[in-house]
Amino acid sequence: MTDISKTIVVLGATGQQGGSVAAALRADGWRVRAVVRDPSGRRARSLSASGVETVRGDLGDPESLRAAFADAHGVFSVQPNSGQAGADVTNEDEVRFGTAVADIAERCGVAHLVYSSAVTAGSTTGVDHLDTKGRVEAHLRNLDIASTIIRPAAFMELLVTREMGLDRGHLSFLMRPDQAMQFIAVRDIGRIVAAVFGSPESYAGRTMEIAGDALTGNALAEHLTRAAGRPISYGRLSTILPTQDEVVSEVVSKLEALVDDGRLVGNANLGALRAEFPFLLRFDRWLAGPGGNLLDEALRSTDSGIGPG
C-alpha cells in the first residue's frame, strides 16, 4: 500500500470517468487535485465542496499542467475525443493531449500514471476516435514512468441516455439481439482506479480490460423491462438510423462490424475481475442503484435523437 495522504491529480474530473475517479479517491482518503478549465463553473464548485482541490488548467497549455502536477504522487489521465457528442477536439488533439500529459508527468517526477484507454486499443480499427487510444498507449510504454492502462468496456450509463429510445419502449445499441457485449458502471471505473493507486506494486506495468457484466441485447431489454415496469424491446442501432445521415450510418456500421468481429464487445475476464474487485456492479444491480435515476429520466425523455452519443 502507498501513502494516501499524497496528492493524485485527476484530469476530466468534471466529466464521467474523471468525476468517478475523484469521488473514489476522496472516499479512500487521498488528496485530490482536479485540473479544470473554469474553477468557478458549477461542476468545479461541486468538486471543491466535496473536498477536491481545483486548479485552472488546460490540456493544450503545458505550463498549466506542469504547475498542476507539481509535487503530485499520481495522475489519472483521460482525454476528450472526437467521438463524443459536442466534442470540440480533433483526433490529433486527443493524441497530442494524451502524450503531453504522460511526458509532463514523467518530467515532474510523478510516481504513477493511470491512463484510461479503450478495449479496441490493441488493434487498428479504422475508427479514428478509437485508434487514438492505441497511439497514446504506444507512447506511454516508451516512457520511464510507472503506469497502468485501463481499458473500460462500454458504459452502462450509455444505455439509458435519451438517444437510446427508452421513452418509446425500445433500446437500440450496437450488438445483435442474441450477441453478448460487456459493460461497466462508471462508478466502478473510479473504484478500480482508486484501488490501482492504492497498490501500485500490484498494478504498475499492467494493461487491464475492465467490465462488470456481459449481456445480450435481449437480456438488456429483459432487465430494463423489469426495472421500468413496462415493456422494452431491443433492436440493433443500424436498423433505426435515418438513411439520409450517411456520416452517422458509416460510423455506426464500422462500430457494429467491430462488435461482430469481437474487438468492441470487450474481452475482460469477468470472474477474475469480480474476485479482485468485489464491488463491481452487474447491470441489474446498477439499475436498482446508481442507474435508477438515469433510467427514470430516460423513460420520461421526449428527445427524438437516435445516435449513440
For the CA atoms, what is the radius of gyration? Answer: 19 Å
Q: Might you state the CATH topology name of the largest domain?
A: Rossmann fold
Number of individual domains:
2
CATH architecture of the largest domain: 3-Layer(aba) Sandwich
Instruction: Name the shape in a single word.
Output: globular
Largest sheet: 7 strands, parallel
- Number of separate strands: 12
Q: Could you characterize the architecture of this molecule?
A:
The chain has 309 residues and is α/β, with parallel strands linked by helices. The chain folds into two domains: 146 residues, 3-Layer(aba) Sandwich (Rossmann fold); 115 residues, UDP-galactose 4-epimerase, domain 1, CATH 3.90.25. Helices cover 40% and strands 17% of the residues. Helix 5 links the parallel strand 5 and strand 6. The two termini are 38 Å apart. The relative contact order is 0.13. The C terminus is likely disordered.
